[in-house]
Amino acid sequence: MPTHACCLSPDLVRKEVEYLKVDFNWRMKEVLVSSMLSAYYVAFVPVWFVKSTQYVDKRWSCELFLLVSVSTSVILMRHLLPARYCDLLHKAASHLGCWHKVDPSLCSNVLQHIWTEDCTWPQGVLVKHNKNVYKAMGYYNVAVPSDVSHYRFYEFNSFFFFNKPLRILNILILLEGAMIFYQLYSLICSEKWHQTISLALILFSNYFAFFRLLRDRIVLGKAYSYTSILRFS
């Protein structure tokens, strides 16, 4: 788990953001690749060992592939994207800041500064960079105005993770709940023993993942609500 230095040095903040971008991309690739590999070995590899004289249920293989891939993705996302990691991304994004390009003709009468990489710019200030005018949107702004990756990092982590701190948990709970209901329906309609055993095993793992997600949602929901009360009191 990376740690947040909580340093306002512009150069160190940008270096920390670059490291977190690489780390976050690696985590998402790990979720995608691992879930696809798990589903591939469970659903498609056994089909290769079936003799040509035997019947293969292709619909069930595709359904099993989707069930395993989605279930594995939810479990891995809960493990690789915990609440502490999401909060760390938000803190780094809040120190990085964000710039929005503005029309120079609309702010010709407003003071405009020349952007420098060693300065921490306050919110609302106008700077010139690469012949364009940008407006500071964050409380602290050390991002490179023309760097699109800095803009995406700030927008994604400040609004997706922090504006709705429990959004990612809510999405995972809804996805896992939908998977459980679908598997229960498939289990009721199943008439073949191998499908029943496969669904029961996947359903057991989803029950455990759903319990852990719901527990984290309740605990973090109370913590965030208590923090909001203290903030506005």
TrEMBL record:
Gene Ontology cellular-component annotations: endoplasmic reticulum membrane
Mode of membrane association: Multi-pass membrane protein
Superkingdom: Eukaryota
UniProt entry tagged with the keyword Glycoprotein: yes
Cellular compartment(s): Endoplasmic reticulum membrane
Record organism: Denticeps clupeoides (denticle herring)
InterPro entries registered for this protein in UniProt: Uncharacterised_TMEM39
Descriptive protein name: Transmembrane protein 39B
Keyword Endoplasmic reticulum found: yes
Main subcellular localisation: endoplasmic reticulum
Function: May protect the cells against DNA damage caused by exposure to the cold-warming stress and facilitates tissue damage repair during the recovery phase.
UniProt similarity note: Belongs to the TMEM39 family.
Transmembrane segments: 31-49, 64-81, 168-185, 197-214
UniProt keyword list: Endoplasmic reticulum, Glycoprotein, Membrane, Transmembrane, Transmembrane helix
